[in-house]
Amino acid sequence: MSFLNTFMSDLRASRAPAAGFIVVGLYWGSFAGLVPDLKAAIGASDGTFGSTMFFAALGALAAMWLAPRVDAKLGARALQGCAIAVGCAFLLPGLANGPITFTVAMLLASAGSGSLDVIINTRVSALEATSKRSLMNLNHALFSFAYAGAAMSAGFFREAGFAPLTVFACISMLNILLLKVMYQDAAVLENDVTVGSSHLSRPLIWLGGLIILIAFMSEQATEAWSALHLERGLGGSAAQGALGPAILGLTMGVGRLSGQFISTHVRETYVLQVAGVIAALGLMIAASALSLSVAYVGFAILGLGVSVMAPMAYSAVGKRVNNQQRAVIITRISVIGYIGFFIGPPLMGGLSESFGLSISFYTIGVILLFVSVFLASQLRKQ
Q1: Best CA proximity match to 133, nearest among 233, 226, 6
Q2: Which ranges of the chain have pLDDT less than 70?
Q3: With contact defined as beta carbons under 8 Å apart, do 253 and 7 qualify?
């Protein structure tokens, strides 16, 4: 079977959660490209902006913990319900005019996104188990491509003088168009949606969760702060600043498509070890860059490395559990992983305000190496 035929077959097999990944990518890509405008609109310093995102992540953690129950309750309509909630919530940051209202807006947006994120990962993991096909990297790649396109589009919208609310409203129209695809027949879900929690492997949950945490923290560091690094530190324009998160999203998409086929020949834990080193190298290049072009290269290398970390961890964990455990374990590792978004912004903001944005990027780079040195090898033993 050719590359294209395999790709299309895998896409058809996972089309419902794939549409969910696209929706999440569109909203967070737009958000990343709009960070300078959103930050200016609420009059926040680096530290204050980081703190608002810290508290906003609380909503996501609570929602993710409840996601299996939402999934079980809504069944075939769960993806559609969560996508509608995300669309409504992401209109609110564009209306915020201060740190408090922005925090509330992002709390609701993060809550909706967090629920949808857990459910789409659970659905793909279940499809992998039943079809015996690798689907996780493909679906995460769709997120990345959607993210890259949205981030770049947001930069052009900013250059043209459009407000963030207008950008989020346009994304909501695309969200509505994808709702029909997100209906997933109940037969696909049989024996895969559960809220039981007996006999769960705690080492497996923590190892998988920590790898995802570090991957998400690294992504968030670049998504939310690369535009500021390029514009404030290297003198780039709004469009040039938006190119940072766009390049990250694009190279992450390419890396994940490659991971879709690498995972059929190489164990996920070996890929994780190599990916951690590549991602750390890329982030350190971007942090030390003296020109926009070198920074772009660094962000591209980071994207290739970090791209496969979360999907490989999800896939590795999903293969080690049964159907009755899957929903709960995917939820647990997602909650741990999402703490990367929870601690990433205040860590970046605090380090940036005290030592400079480059030092904060170096710090994340060192943390990435921990995946290669310790976590991946321990996960292999489970």
Answers
A1: 6
A2: 1-3, 186-200, 224, 342, 345
A3: no
